[in-house]
Amino acid sequence: MCQPARSLHTGGEQEQQGGVVSFDLVLTTPACPVKDKFKKDCTDLIKQLPWVKDVKLTLSSQHRPAGGGQKVENSQTGLKDVKRIIAVSSAKGGSGSQRIAKLGGKVGIFDADIYGPSLPTMVGVENPRVVRSQTNEERIAPLHYQDVKLMSYGFTAKARGGQASIMRGPMVASTVHQLLAFTDWGELDYLVLDFPPGTGDIQLTICQQVNIDGAVIVTTPQKLSFVDVVRGIEMFDTLNVPIVALVENMSYFDCSCGTRHFPFGEGHSQKISDQYGTPSAVVLPIHSSL
């Protein structure tokens, strides 16, 4: 989970002069959802010292390895200019993870679902084709939709031809690696990895090959979804991927009479937050257009 990478007693940089204390608070991830709370708590605690007149605190994060944070040896893959990588996982299908996958800045979306890719249907790109990059023939060019770069197995000729994805684990892992690492993503602020449901080969392959800055967990109010989401949280915790957000999708709808209805009952998102220390859930309503 998100936490300071080191304390003042174990190598944190600090200075004190004339009653003014200056120090750096180094976090494990720049996407820490409670970094403002850390900053406030540290400042308040130091100000309790009688000789302290002012506190100057600078937030930073652990430096990301060169080559886009890749764990694979080949640092010349298409991820080398990607600044931050965010995984979006529902752990159970039908939670609408791609709905919350668009962030500000230069953004790319990678649909990691080989067996049931949904990104082509969601964006509706005209004449989708996977071709070689014009800037590097060893890579493939991402598709574009509203200034967002896209890649999905659903864009390949085999998938567009209606052929089923019949693959065993090693072949799936190889396909995911090729599509992710050899797409010419270029310079991105965020690359969003839209994980398929579950905690299988695809999730393990990506988490073992790429340094992911944070994971967004998407759930629905049903108890069955809660059980599956817990497995997803435990998987990310085991793989040392911090949970930066929890989203409860399709939670309610507002009637024209002014009443808010919860057709699936109250969700278990607060229980997840309390049990695993994740940020409080962002609750999204049901939209008929989606």
Automatic annotation (TrEMBL):
GO terms for biological process: iron-sulfur cluster assembly. SUPFAM superfamilies: Fe-S cluster assembly (FSCA) domain-like (SSF117916), P-loop containing nucleoside triphosphate hydrolases (SSF52540). Residues 17-56 form the MIP18 family-like domain. One of its GO terms (molecular function) is 4 iron, 4 sulfur cluster binding. CDD domains: Mrp_NBP35. It holds the Pfam family FeS_assembly_P. One of its GO terms (cellular component) is chloroplast. Signal peptide: none annotated. The keyword Nucleotide-binding applies. This is MIP18 family-like domain-containing protein. It comes from Guillardia theta (strain CCMP2712) (Cryptophyte). The lineage of its organism: Eukaryota, Cryptophyceae, Pyrenomonadales, Geminigeraceae, Guillardia.
